[in-house]
Structures are given as structure tokens and as C-alpha cells.
Design goal:
Elements lengths: L8 E6 L6 H14 L4 E5 L7 H10 L4 H25 L3 E5 L2 H10 L4 H7 L8 E6 L2 H12 L17 H23 L2 E4 L4 H13 L28
Parallel strand pairs: 1-3, 1-4, 2-3, 4-5
Helix pairs in contact: 1-8, 2-3, 3-4, 4-7
């Protein structure tokens, strides 16, 4: 792959359900498009190839952890080839509502070997920016119950059979995921954002950080005088 042909930017927002991740992605998309930047949204289970089959398999809870990890990797690889790379070549800003980091964290917490899952996702590009919105598990419980009235089976880690109490399972599972993200942060260098604030405060912080990585492609409609920093993209295949 000729990395110099990728003229767009890949920006990732990670975080659990209830962290405000999708809200921030939507606000970023509206902000970027107002400034004149074309955007493309990607996320988990959005592949035209396998998303419906993956959703069906998860409803039935019929797959082992390794097989489910490979199913998610197929979903990612299809989007990577058919949406992410073409958009980057065309100069779009790709906004990822979660990326490989969530998938790796989930697999490792469920017992998969870290080296194996990292190799599975070695095809991925290192994004121009990764923001992990960190929210305490107790706040996540409150937000999810307020929005859905129930906790999600998978986001509670109920498939791991660690507790029959969904609340206890949710708290324990989310703590494990956050612990894994802290470990990955040391390897991949993404930024942790305090998600226990108002959406407006979080968005303001994200916008300020993203302005500095737009690679000199500031359209004429941008009114601010932004100092643009260059950024080299490398592959994720690391030890």
C-alpha cells in the first residue's frame, strides 16, 4: 500500500456504551462538515458483508470467543478495504465510532492471547488520532439504565459467566476493559478523555485537538488560524 496516497485523516473515538461516544462522533461530523471537510462514518457491525450475520450470531450466543473475534475481524476488514481506504484516498475525514482497540480489549479480557489478537488486526492503519472517553463503571450503569432501562448482555460480560447478577457483572467487566485500555495506551499512545463531563466540554476538547492534525487541508471556510502539524501514518503491526 502506498501510504502517501492516503490524503484523508482517520480519527477514532473509543469508549463503552453510555460514554457519550456516538454523540461526540455526531457532533464532530457536523462540525467538520460545517468547516468544509467531507466525512465518512464507520463503526462496529457495519459491514455490508457480515454485519447482519454477526448480529444474528450474537443474539443466539452460539460462537466461541475465538470464532467471534474472527467474525468481528471480518467485519472490520471488509469496512477497512471498502470504506476506510477509499475514503482516505479521496481525502475524506474518516470518523470511527470505535476501532480495533475495543475489539482487542474485548478479546483479551475474554481470554484470547494478546499476541494473537494483535496479529489479527495488524492490517489496520494507525489513526491520526485516537480518543478514549473514560467514564467510571458506576456512571455507565446509571446512563445505560436511564437510556435503555436494562443493561446490555455483552457490555455486561454476561457471556463470561462470572456472576449471575447483571449489575455486578457489568461493573467487573467494565473495570477489566478499562484496565486493558490503560495497558494499550502505553503501547499505542492514544489519548484518554475525561467522559464524566458535559458533552459540550468534551466536544470542545476534541475539536481543539483535532484542529492540530488536519494535515494542512484547512478549507477556506475555516475562520480560525490553525497551526497544522504533519503526521506520518504507520502500520499497527507492533510488538
Amino acid at each position: 500500500m502506498n501510504l502517501e496516497s492516503l490524503n484523508g485523516q482517520l480519527i477514532v473515538v473509543e469508549g463503552a456504551d453510555g460514554s457519550g461516544r456516538s454523540t461526540q462522533i455526531n457532533l464532530l461530523r457536523n462540525w467538520l462538515e460545517r468547516l468544509g471537510f467531507p466525512t465518512v462514518n464507520v463503526g462496529l457491525k457495519r459491514s455490508m458483508l457480515v454485519s447482519r450475520e454477526l448480529e444474528s450470531a450474537m443474539r443466539g450466543n452460539i460462537l466461541g470467543t475465538r470464532t467471534l473475534s474472527l467474525f468481528y475481524a471480518t467485519d472490520f476488514a471488509d469496512q477497512f478495504e471498502n470504506r476506510i481506504l477509499p475514503a482516505l484516498r479521496a481525502g475524506f475525514v474518516v470518523l470511527a465510532d470505535r476501532y480495533i482497540y475495543t475489539l482487542m480489549a474485548r478479546a483479551i479480557v475474554r481470554g484470547m492471547e494478546a499476541d494473537w489478537i494483535q496479529e489479527v488486526y495488524s492490517i489496520a492503519l494507525v489513526p491520526d488520532a485516537v480518543f478514549y472517553i473514560a467514564v467510571s463503571p458506576e456512571v455507565l450503569v446509571e446512563r445505560n439504565l436511564r437510556k435503555h432501562a436494562v443493561l446490555d448482555y455483552w457490555e455486561s460480560g454476561m457471556d463470561m459467566n462470572r456472576s449471575q447478577n447483571m449489575y455486578d457483572s457489568f461493573i467487573g467487566y467494565q473495570k477489566d476493559i478499562q484496565r486493558q485500555f490503560r495497558k494499550m495506551q502505553k503501547v499505542y499512545g492514544f489519548e484518554t478523555v475525561n467522559g464524566n463531563r458535559t458533552p459540550r466540554a468534551i466536544q470542545r476538547e476534541l475539536q481543539l485537538k483535532i484542529e492540530s492534525i488536519l494535515n494542512g487541508k484547512t478549507p477556506a471556510v475555516v475562520e480560525r488560524n490553525v497551526e497544522i502539524a504533519s503526521h506520518d501514518r504507520i502500520f499497527v503491526s507492533r510488538t
